[in-house]
Amino acid sequence: MSGTDSVTREQRSSSNSSANEEWKITSFPKNKIKVLLLEGISKMAVDEFVKEGFQVKCLPQLSEAELVKEIKGVHALGIRSKTTISKAVLDAADRLLCVGAFCIGTDQTDTTSAALHGVAVFNAPYANTRSVAEMCLSLFIALARQLGDRSMECHAGKWNKVSSKCYEVRGKTLGIIGYGHVGSQLSILAEALGMQVIYYDVVPVMQLGNAKSLDSLEAVLKEADFVSIHVPGIPSTHNLISERELALMKPGAYLVNASRGKVVDVEAAAQALRSGHLGGAAFDVFPSEPPPIKDAEFKSPLRGCPNTILTPHIGGSTEEAQAAIGKEVSQKMIALINTGSTLGAVNMPSVHLPHSATAHRLLNSHYNVPGVLRDINNILSDYNVSSQMLMTNAEVGYLMIELDSEVSHEVRDKLAALKNSIKTRVLF
User: Fold this and answer.
1) Looking at 289, 352, 355, 410, which residue is catalytic?
2) Any alpha helices (H) in 181-293, and if so which ranges?
3) What span, in angstroms and rounded, lies between the C-alpha atoms of 34 and 53?
4) Which residues contact 233 (CB under 8 A, 6 or more apart)?
5) Exposure winner among 9, 104, 285, 388, fewest CB in 10 A?
6) 155 tagged catalytic
7) Quick one: which of 290, 278, 284 has its CA closest to 254?
8) How distant is the alpha carbon of residue 15 from its chain centre?
């Protein structure tokens, strides 16, 4: 059984006799849990939810207005990178417990607003790292051999067999900007091809294999034959690679960006490519990507640049990656629904407790403000609590309690009545 017997701030004032009758049910039947999956999420995820006995509805990508209508009554929402989860969507969600981003990033979701609605947001930060790393490696070879241009020429009927400015990657230096999960995997793969690897990361990271850490971004740019970027899309990385940084790169060097679109100033990159300063470049992400409209045109100053490979944000789009993401994110969401666990949530404190078969489990999310812990403890001090865990972040606190079954709903009522409570539910 899965508990969604919850009370939000908006609902707590309407405690009446009919509501109290409903609360006598300890847990919410699994077959009434509604899961909405958008954007063609992997069948692996669908199967995981179906196996749990949940109701699963799969739809294509929805606009904000469409999602505001569709979200009512939904307990778990699954999206990919193109669906925006705004405050308006969260305000309309009357039953939502969690959002699963079946991808690496959560930029498309207002995670702070989700936390303030008591909604946990999960993603799969590592499941498609191998797919991205393999694609980057293939791009190095394709750029060094000008394969993109030769392919287009052959399709146009032109036979241009040349070796000028075509190279092996063996013996060349790869500079990795951001030595995280993708960057470090790419490091190992590149070494296997005989490349020398240098890298820079703002956080000290131990190198793998024979990779060498350098002290600055500038040092890597000056030394590398290939530069591959693997950083998050945050304010400090906006236009991380711009006109100044491109000028520091070796004449004829290659640039690959499969991280976030706004990390590279594409106008400056296009100029460097057309002038011949860059020998080539590959972009899988862009500052502005087409909306989810059929036949929408992709516009970019990089179009038509020499030896430039442009791909539509497919770095993690492999069958293996999507299956891994589907399983990882769905299992995190199922754990939240079934046990209240927030392990792996990007916006909620991480809380998990083993369950005692003789107790009821109660969950409470609340604003992290002075005095809230005092108010919670004043309530709990009158009851026999067998175990509890409270963790907080800047916005919210998340409390998991196990206590005598005879008083679980009574305690729930009192916690829900606190002015700083967001959502309170008896799970089982």
Assistant:
1) 289
2) 181-192, 217-223, 243-248, 266-275
3) 10
4) 105, 107, 259, 260, 261, 262, 263
5) 388
6) no
7) 278
8) 37
Locate 12 and state its tokens: 């707590």
Residues 129-310, CATH architecture: 3-Layer(aba) Sandwich (3.40)
Comparing CA positions, the residue from 252, 11, 36 lying closest to residue 144 is: 252
pTM above 0.90, yes or no: no
Contacts of residue 345, defined as CB under 8 A and 6 or more positions apart, other chains included, come to 98, 120, 121, 122, 332, 336
For this structure, is 313 an active site residue? yes
- Alpha-carbon distance of 276 to 251, in angstroms, equals 8
Pairing of strands 421-426, 5-8: antiparallel
Cβ atoms of 344 and 361 within 8 Å: the answer is no
Taking CA atoms, 178 is separated from 171, 207, 212, 221, 257, in Å, by 22, 12, 13, 13, 11
CA distance 254 to 308: 10
- The answer to whether residues 109 and 121 touch, using CB atoms and an 8 Å cutoff, is yes
* Catalytic residue, candidates 95, 238, 274, 313: 313
Q: Is 260 labeled as catalytic in the residue annotation?
A: yes
CA–CA gap between residue 406 and residue 200 (Å, rounded): 57
Q: What is the pLDDT of residues 356-403, one digit of tens each?
A: 777 889 899 999 999 999 999 999 888 888 888 999 999 999 999 998
Kindly compute the dihedral angle of the four CA atoms of residues 63, 66, 72, 76, in this order, to the nearest 10 degrees: -30
Report pLDDT digits (tens) over 297-331.
999 999 999 999 999 999 988 989 989 999 999 99
CATH for the 33-128+318-346 domain, from 1.10.10.10, 3.40.50.920, 3.40.50.2020, 3.40.50.720: 3.40.50.720
| Calpha distance 60→40 (Å, rounded) | 6
Please give the full DSSP string across 385-404, using - where no structure is assigned: EEEEEEEE-SSEEEEEEEEE
- What's the token pair of residue 80? 């990919």
